[in-house]
Specification:
This protein folds into three domains: 2-395, Na+/H+ antiporter like fold (Up-down Bundle), CATH 1.20.1530.20; 406-472, Alpha-Beta Plaits; 475-535, Regulator of K+ conductance, C-terminal domain (Alpha-Beta Plaits), CATH 3.30.70.1450. The chain has a four-stranded antiparallel β-sheet, with no helix packed on it. It has helices spanning 2-25, 29-39, 53-73, 77-80, 84-110, 114-123, 129-139, 147-157, 159-174, 179-208, 218-236, 241-253, 260-285, 288-318, 326-334, 340-352, 360-385, 486-491; strands spanning 408-414, 436-441, 447-448, 461-467, 477-481, 504-510, 513-515, 528-532. Helix 3 crosses helix 11 (218-236) and helix 14 packs antiparallel against helix 15 (326-334). The chain is of the alpha+beta class. The two termini are 45 Å apart.
Length: 535
């Protein structure tokens, strides 16, 4: 057990290192996680015996629940709404077109059985949200004409339809379903999944706004339970659990409730761990010798997806909208990466149908590796060549990095005797455009909203508002406690006298009182200084 825990820690540290290294060399980080799993796989350099497909399928399917939930939770609906119709069509009709086109060409070119070809097309019919998000966020690619939110909504919501197609193909292979049964399966999957998604989401928001769960951190536990329930309940009666989970995520992510920002930070790390788990576990199942045998059909099917199925689906869906030209459609087609969900669905197929003529798992595994390595690596270059990069668009606003609609911070300015604002009208002050004067609190407690004629007086407290800084420009602050030293009383009496090398004293805390210091502010033993060490 102890050795196993050491191994888990080593794998996690390695994943963190790979995440940092992949940003420097331009390799998609999820590909690095897969390769790490292969390194530890059955025939790898440090073999871990893993042959239980059922266990991996259950583990990865559970992890996929949270990835789907957070994919919805992190969707900024105000950005996604303008492209929602075409994105939803791509996630449904586009998936079906991709699956059927791939199935037909797979049967025609490779000679596979038509139903097994349909199963293959269904398994690889969805694009991978994690891969697309990872590349766009890492490279901070702002794309023109709303392409980024379109890709986000499509890749985040097309797994349910691909899963539904996989279940239908498995039923047809089993020979126990008719055309009417297929239609009923589609209706049940979509209808029950959608209904339960909205009902569970509304119930969750109702409870979050009426029960205080922030005290002991139970809010994160509550949302984990909601994500699990949103998958399990509809799945019990034949509904699409992944669709329900995604709807619940979107609904919660775009409704206000307490500690929402903390939830974004929590799920950002939690789903990152789930992605590592999925890709690593899938890598453990891989066998290099079987992957080599599956490489040729995998390359053929990848080319079918890349050159025919995906472009046909994109053109069929987006051309009628008239606002997507050739360059936009080309980039959207190129961005159709295959990822972990395709491999998870392949495991579902292998577990559900034992009599397949072809090695579906390893073929799909190779397709995903080629897709992430080729399309993922070249996506920034292709976007640049197609002139689809918009330097004035911040792609991070599309994703969960912006957890609230507006990120502002409020500060207090006290009008003291020597204040430059004292006895002056607001219109005569030199205030930066990025700062807004929100409120003036008089010494007697009277509150007023300032205007250009407002005069600040001694004792006033002015509440000002400004934007928060970018996450890449955080100020590095170091805490220092002033010691009770006899030499201190003689030489270091004020902030001006206090020796601070390559830094600035930003805040002084004395007996719980917070003081914004200036050069003549006295310093006493026991004071806590917060020093800016950003330089």
């Amino acid at each position: 057990m102890t050795l196993f825990l050491v191994l888990v820690a080593v794998v996690l540290f390695t994943c963190i290192f790979l995440n940092s290294a992949s940003n420097r060399i331009g390799m998609p980080v999820l590909l690095a996680f897969i390769l790490l799993g292969i390194l530890f796989s059955n025939n790898g350099l440090m073999p871990i015996k893993m042959t239980n497909y059922n266990f991996v399928e259950q583990l990865c399917s559970t992890a996929l629940i949270f990835i789907m939930f957070y994919g919805g939770f992190g969707t900024r609906w105000s950005s996604a709404r303008p492209v929602a119709p075409e994105a939803i069509l791509l996630a449904t009709a586009g998936v079906i077109i991709t699956a059927l086109t791939t199935a037909f060409l797979c049967h025609f070119l490779l000679g596979w059985d038509i139903l097994e070809s349909l199963l293959m097309g269904s398994v690889v019919s969805s694009t991978d949200a994690a891969s697309v998000f990872s590349i766009l966020r890492t490279k901070k690619l702002g794309l023109r004409n709303g392409v980024a939110p379109l890709l986000e909504v499509e890749s985040g919501s097309n797994d349910p339809c691909a899963y539904m197609m996989t279940i239908v193909a498995l039923s047809l292979l089993g020979g126990n379903v008719s055309f009417g049964g297929v239609a009923m399966t589609f209706v049940a999957q979509l209808g029950i999944g959608t209904l339960f998604g909205f009902l569970i989401a509304q119930g969750a928001v109702f409870l979050l706004n009426r029960i205080d769960l922030t005290t002991n951190g139970f809010n994160s536990m509550f949302l984990i339970a909601v994500a699990i329930l949103s998958y399990a309940l509809p799945s019990l009666i034949g509904g699409n659990g992944y669709l329900s989970t995604y709807i619940v995520g979107v609904y919660l992510g775009n409704h206000g409730f307490g500690s929402k920002k903390d939830m974004v930070n929590f799920f950002d790390g939690f789903t990152g761990l789930m992605q590592v788990l999925i890709f690593f576990m899938l890598g453990l199942l891989a066998r290099v010798d079987l992957m080599l045998k599956a490489l040729v059909p995998a390359l053929v099917i990848f080319l079918i997806l890349f050159l025919v199925a995906r472009p046909v689906a994109v053109a069929a869906i987006l051309t009628p909208f008239r606002k997507y030209g050739v360059r936009q459609q080309a980039l959207i087609s190129f961005s159709g990466l295959r990822g972990a969900s395709s491999i998870v669905f392949a495991i579902v197929a292998v577990v559900g149908e034992k009599s397949l003529d072809n090695d579906l798992f390893n073929v799909v595994f190779c397709i995903v590796l080629v897709s992430i390595a080729f399309q993922g690596y070249l996506l920034p270059w292709v976007a640049k060549k197609l002139d689809m990069i918009d330097p004035d668009t911040d792609v991070m606003k599309t994703f969960s990095d912006f957890s609230e609609e507006v990120q502002l911070q409020f500060s207090e300015v006290r009008i003291v005797e020597d204040s430059e604002w004292r006895d002056k009208m607001v219109r005569n002050l030199h205030i930066p455009r990025e700062v807004l004067l929100c409120l003036v609190i008089k010494p007697d407690g009277t509150r007023l909203v300032p205007n250009g004629n407002t005069v600040f007086e001694f004792g006033d407290r002015v509440i000002v508002c400004s934007k928060t800084i970018d996450s890449d420009e955080q100020v590095k602050v170091q805490q220092y406690i002033v010691q009770d030293d006899p030499k201190f009383k003689e030489r270091q009496k004020t902030i001006r006298d206090f020796p601070v090398q390559k830094g600035q004293v930003m805040l002084l805390v004395r007996s719980g009182e917070r003081i914004i210091p200036h050069g003549s502010t006295p310093v006493q033993p026991g004071d806590i200084l917060y020093i800016n060490r950003s330089v």
